[in-house]
Amino acid sequence: MQERLFDLDDLHSFSDLSTFTQNIPIEWVESALHLASKATIRRRRLPSDQVLWLVLGMALFRNEPVAEVARRLNICARGLATDHLLAPSGVSQARQRLGCEPVEWLFRQTGACWGSERYPGDDWHGLQVLAVDGAVLRTPDTPALRDHFGSGNTGTDRQTPYPMMRVAALMNVRSHVVLDAQLSPYRRSEMRLAETFIDRIPNHTVTLFDKGFWGADLLLRVATLGTQRHWLIPARKGLVGETIATYNADDRLLRMRVSPQARQRNPDLPATWDVRAVRMAYKGKRQTVFTSLPAADYDTEAVAALYRERWEIEVGFRDIKSALQHNAVTLRSKTVDLAYQEVWGLLLAYNVIRREASQAALVHGQDPTRIRFKFAYQYIAAQLIVMAAAQPLSRTGARLSELRAGVAQLCLDHRPRPSRPRAVKMSKTRYPLNRQAAPLK
């Protein structure tokens, strides 16, 4: 009976990880498993479908060994996941058989579906607000990982202490769901990574960029490939444009030349392009943002206030690094393929938590943006352990209802956000300071 319960042909029957399976349709899981690195015929103690949930569990229990994660979540096809059935080496081999492609495919599928969901207060003047930015994750320092991912300052003898993986992501700044992402070695720039998913930005959106993404090719693709796709980005110093229309003292339309370098990479680019420049006052300083939003439909004050929401994607990266990863210095995987697998699982688990929190807020009439990510993650992780050992299994559905009821109580109070200017904190040490060493990035 237990064999039948976890058989691949009856995936819909098993319910020990129902928090995952209620958000991720079984059809998606089956499609993802077709991309596994190695196919297997015989029934293993850790089949591919179970290993997929194990990768998600690794993101929820960062400080626990992988074998302990399998035991806690009872991930095993043959009875309880005890030390007699699951060896640490067997767990590692099961992850290698799965590979990173199924986890990546499943993340993209869920991101595309969940990112298009609308919640109360999720739009701005009828548009969804998205943001694009990048981050870096450190990997263990092994020869294979350093050779593949590289590190900072690779042009000199000074390098960062750990190899680094670069991540570029497209995030909904209101629900904080990651719609799409791209991973690569450190040497590849964030702009080149963003170009791989720019075409998949949904229609009726406005995308907020950091100033490092300035480029005619990138921004024109956002505005032209789709319906009602707009962008917003800070002005770069030294850019020169001709004023062709003035709407008010802080709002005008500029005509700018496309750089020869951009036209060399893409000969289809025009010689000039029109950009709306909006000036705003923020913390006593005058700043300018460029946008494709037409002045006839979107007023100056609304556009100026909108760009401040770009910081929400930084909050999302903080939740991934601080809450899910517990501020760990490096990832836990020590091979290239498993490092990619771990990060795709990390992004997928982040989205599962965000969506579960949003659904709980929706059921109880709360704003999804008010759910505290850290406490929702801790609550869901604790409940998963309880549900994995729930007896009888028929109680799992009731526990899921209780889980959403509990998540909905983890709401932030409406209070002004304190100002936290960037600062460097120096700690005293009894060891001499090596000023030739590269900083830990």
What features would you highlight for this structure?
10 strands, 441 residues, disordered N terminus, globular, 10-stranded mixed sheet, single chain, alpha+beta
**How large is the count of helical segments?**
16
Q: Would you tell me the structural class of the helices and strands? A: alpha+beta
Could you spell the SSE succession in H and E letters? HHHHHHHEEHEEHEHEEEHEEHHHHH
What fraction of residues sit in β-strands?
A: 15-25%
Largest sheet: 10 strands, mixed
* Rounded Rg: 24 Å
Mean pLDDT: 78
Range of helix content: 25-40%
DSSP, total strands = 10
General form: globular
**Which segments are poorly predicted (pLDDT under 50) over 5 or more consecutive residues?**
1-17, 39-43, 77-81, 392-396
Euclidean distance between termini CA atoms: 52 Å
